[in-house]
User: Fold this.
Amino acid sequence: MSAQIINFRPEGDQEWARWAECAKPGRPDMFPTDGDVKAVAAAKSTCHACPVVAECLEEALKRGESYGVWGGYIGSDLTVLRRNAARRSRKTGEPRASASELADAAALDLASESVAS
Assistant:
């Protein structure tokens, strides 16, 4: 059974979600158990081909998601992204990066990883 992102706690403008790869029938479960390495890898690989990966990641960062695979990142990865942004902000004195800025940077990293492998 595949979880569909468009049915998971919808709020705000979710128009982008209809283009998500994980919303298509037959896709891997996007909420695998933490210990299921193969299922997590399958869910992440779905994100590598997704045209709305940045939008998905931005939504997860805005909502503080800690479970599931969002934009190619698992919940603990999202926590690290948020924590690192807060640390950079404190160290540099610059305003904290927005969810959109974090998502764009992380999506670029994900794309470069995909090209490299």
Remarks:
- Confidence is low (pLDDT under 50) at residues 1-10.
- The chain has one domain: 5-116.
